[in-house]
Specification:
The chain is 41% helix and 15% strand. By secondary structure, it is of the alpha+beta class. It has two domains: 1-36; 49-126, Nuclear Transport Factor 2, Chain: A, CATH 3.10.450. Strands 1, 2, 3, 4 and 5 form a five-stranded mixed sheet that branches.
């Protein structure tokens, strides 16, 4: 009888420990994804032409011009294909145009695309 109680108690402790570990892992991963998301990025951005010009001048030399994937149209609201590589907006550009700080960018077919890093949607298209 004593062994049976000990077995049940041990099983309860292991169950509780496993549940706690699973909860901690879930909390940790949700905190990690929250930390990795850039605050302030959204799917809408409307830069005045003076800030677009500043961004163009700063970013055009930072990105390599990529070819547009077949059927891709670089328009605001479109999702950027996974084959297009993005980079974070450099701090110099983010200082000159603070609205760009939480975004990434890519140059595709001679256009600079400002992209929301969380869902890869194009929020601004800048041409030179």
């Amino acid at each position: 009888m004593q062994k049976k109680r000990l077995s049940i108690a041990l099983a309860a402790v292991l169950f509780a420990a496993g549940t706690s570990a699973a909860l901690a892992a879930g909390t940790s991963s949700s905190n990690t994804s929250t930390t990795m998301a850039k605050p302030g990025a959204s799917d809408t951005l409307s830069l005045p032409s003076s800030e677009q010009k500043t961004a163009w001048n700063d970013l055009k030399s930072q990105a390599s011009n990529q070819s547009a994937p077949s059927g891709f149209q670089a328009t605001v609201g479109a999702a950027l294909p996974a084959s297009v590589k993005t980079m974070p907006v450099p701090s110099k550009t983010a200082t000159a145009v603070p609205a760009l700080k939480p975004y990434e960018f890519a140059m595709v077919a001679g256009k600079i695309l400002i992209v929301n890093p969380s869902d890869k949607k194009i929020v601004e298209v800048i041409t030179g």
